[in-house]
Amino acid sequence: MLAALDKPSETLDGPETAFVAAVRNYGWFRTQVLADGEGPSFAFSTGFWLSVKQPEILIFSMRSDLAHDVLWDLFRRAERGEALPVGRRTDQVFANVPACLFPIDRRRYAEYLGWSRWFYCGDDFPCLQLVWPDRAGLFPWEQGFDAAFEGDQIDLTEFGWKAELRQ
Fold it and tell me: How many other CB atoms sit within 10 Å of the CB of residue 143?
């Protein structure tokens, strides 16, 4: 697999060198993107696929420190060989609420996964979107989902969360 780790160090600028060093030292790197007029904040991993053969993860609208902790926990689980269930509700991510993980449509990679695309030299890596529920445990596609959280998570799947959900 071609990755930025294979690039000669003299071809990397300062931020690229730091990024590669983090992946070498820790196995992965977290990129945090702030909310703007276009959409909510989000964080995503880079290095899971190379280091532990698990898909990268993207999370919307979570505090930076919490997103980092969640990604670290998921990385450690992947190191132990634990695979996350895709397309169904799981209690394996958060201690007190369920979560769902869905494959991100590769047509969305360019808009959301810039550093991962740079690191992997293209789009040849899997990435999952981690979707969290409201305080009542309801997901954005479920009736009664708290309207206060609408717009906090953008559906990046190919066919929509509800269509991607496996019962």
Answer: 5
d(Cα 13, Cα 17) in Å, to the nearest integer? 6
Looking at the structure of the chain, the number of domains it has is: 1
**Cα–Cα dist 13/79, whole Å:** 30
Give residue-wise pLDDT tens across range 105-150.
999 999 999 999 999 999 999 999 999 999 999 999 999 999 999 9
- Provide the residue range defining the domain that includes 134: 4-164
- Distance from C-alpha of 64 to C-alpha of 69, rounded to nearest angstrom: 9
User: What is the Cα–Cα distance from 26 to 22, expressed in whole angstroms?
Assistant: 6
The CA distance from 10 to 24, in Å, is 16
| Cα(19)–Cα(44) distance, integer angstroms | 13
What is the identity of the amino acid at 136? Answer: A
